[in-house]
Amino acid sequence: MKTMKAIVLEKPKVLKTEIRNRPVIMEDEVLVAVKCVGICGSDIHYYEHGKIGNYVVEKPLILGHEASGEVISIGRNVKKFNVGDKVVIEPGATCGKCEYCKSGRYNLCPDVKFLATPPVDGALCEYLAVKEDYLFKIPDNIEYDVATLVEPLSVGIHGAIRGNVKLGDKVLILGLGPVGLLTILAVKAFGASQIIAVDVQPLRLNAAKELGATHIINAKDSNYKQLILEATQNVGPDVTFETAGSKETSILAFEITKRGGRIVLIGLLPDNEVSVNINSIVDNEYNVYGVFRYANTYRKAIEVLSNNLDKVKKLITHRFKFDEAIQAFEFVRGNKDKCIKAVIVI
Asked: What is the pLDDT confidence band of residue 70, given thresholds at 50, 70 and 90?
């Protein structure tokens, strides 16, 4: 049996390199040599706390779900890929049989097996066996590190679809982590004419400007709410995206959005409950949309990345080697003011 190296979370804040068996592909699978993996906020949360909500790391777990790589072998029934293809991996394998899968909302499949979500191992390893349905070719002009952004960009695209972003919309984005920043590109692709980006970190605000935000507002400014209103001629945004996952921004979304507007909730909060004025939702006829991962977005995400390569390359601020994984996680955890996106090159 051939072997490979993997980065394994043994318990909170303890990562180790393990030698594991290289996966053997089935007839409908592709063996991918993993080239690059992005470090997501969920990876950091598992690293710090060993759990996210109901998902608890009860045995050693390989982290990472934002992955790109090269096809090195294919099963006999694989039709769409050849050895040598550059690919990006959609990390959620669904049942294909439930009502959600059959209706196209497969992200809601109750039996999904999502990379790096306990007990399913992730992509921080040298090889992965992947069904061809969850692989997408990437053009030669997209490098492996940039290709890892397809996954977080897909969240933004799914949010734009859910929020019905359309030509001429004024959009507010609260929180400029990688998903919030990439949501700028998503809403631009759907025709938004005004994009107001809000955060507290100058590094992220500057990145938002480069990506195409028409207004950047630092939430440390005592009158930042008034600045948002002034940017929309005091009527509020047509669509508000909450991507920070904070109580304050979640409440603000329901206070500042234009009457009849749409509120898209992407960020996950530390607490399950936030006080919201239900009568205000009724009176303002808000449409409120939750966003859970994505569905049918990867091809669009690859297209958007291809059209914005010079801009998105700058989002990857730090690169680490495979044997520097521990340093990578510690750096990302403690340097949110210096790091937008870190990747591990394998």
From this structure: very high
Instruction: Specify the pTM.
Output: 0.96
Q: What is the DSSP letter of 296?
A: S
pLDDT at 64 over 90: yes
DSSP state of 125: B
* 120/218 Cα distance (integer angstroms): 38
Domains of the chain: 3-137+308-345 (3.90.180.10), 153-290 (3.40.50.720)
* Cα–Cα–Cα angle for 41, 205, 290, rounded to 5 degrees: 50
Which tens digits make up the pLDDT trace of 91-107? 999 999 999 999 999 99
Residue 325's pLDDT is 93
| Tokens matching residue 125 | 């390893």
Q: How far is CA 332 from CA 124, 199, 242, in A?
A: 16, 18, 22
CA separation for the pair 133, 89 (Å, rounded)? 10
Structure tokens at 145: 């590190």
Give the integer Cα–Cα distance in Å for 63 and 120. Answer: 9
